Amino acid sequence: MTSPALTGADAAASALPASALPASTLFASENADGAAAARRAASRRAEPASAGLGFPTNTGAGEGADAAAPARTSTAELRQALPLVTVRDLSVAYDATTVLDGVDLDLFPGEMVALLGASGSGKSTLMRSLTGFAPISAGSVRVAGHDVTNLARGELRTLRSDVGQVFQQFNLIPRLSVMTNVLAGGLHGAGAINLVGGFSSAHRRRALELLDRVGIAHKANAPARSLSGGQQQRVAIARALMQQPKVILADEPVASLDPKLADSVLELLREIATEDGIPVLVSLHVLPLALAHSDRIIGLRHGRKLIAGATSQLDAAALSPLYDDEEHDDDAHH
Q1: pLDDT tens track for 38-56
Q2: Degrees to nearest 5, angle at CA 202 with 199 and 207
Q3: Three-state DSSP class for residue 72
Q4: What pTM value is reported for the model?
């Protein structure tokens, strides 16, 4: 396999278009790409300079030593360089069937990462592994400070409260109001008041603010079943934010929406990643959506990671190997 380092022949290859590069060259720098994407996201919401990136300034003669000193890295920048999710050599098996085999993954603050692959490639299993819903047979998984492979008693509920989830089928309670569905996202932190079915005024204010943020505050009192699919998915996103999550997992969140609504929902998720610094992992089946709405792309095939790289370096041709089996299946039926 070609070395991932861009030296010798690889240096020449770096000038080629993305679709012409071998996978080993094109996708080797996942961690660097993720950290870079996180730093770019941080810069978009950066503090004023006076709040301190900490770069020394030369104010006059005699301060050469200070001017030559290396620039200090701010605490915010250091945080952006550290992944909130770290998966190493992950394997998941159900009985004798291996679903994931040696998968690595990092998710950094402020980035949106698209997870691609054909049906049965292991996308949903990888997401379930991050919240303790899949049987991890080998490797390590750390999510928002939790060691998922060695959770202490009672820690599983805390882990799941730290991870907001958005699903394809919305998972709302149709007969309840939009407001109540959003408030349900805060049950973990509502304390004793939720035992009698109530929420504090502070929780209600926050829920209304979140509904306003996703653009449907005017529907707060409407039953969830009266909303369109796109509106229901926005309610689901507001509910996930109500948890104050450290990570968001979105499993095929736009599969049941038309293209225009799909774009608007993915734009909202990416805005949340950038503005709130919450990494978003979103599984998708449509390549143009992944290329338009993500900072990085991870591609699975037969439970193994086949592709990992910055979205800016990828195109449909480079991603097509992920779906070769689907094309062969289609050919077999013709």
Answers
A1: 555 555 544 433 333 333 3
A2: 75
A3: coil
A4: 0.76
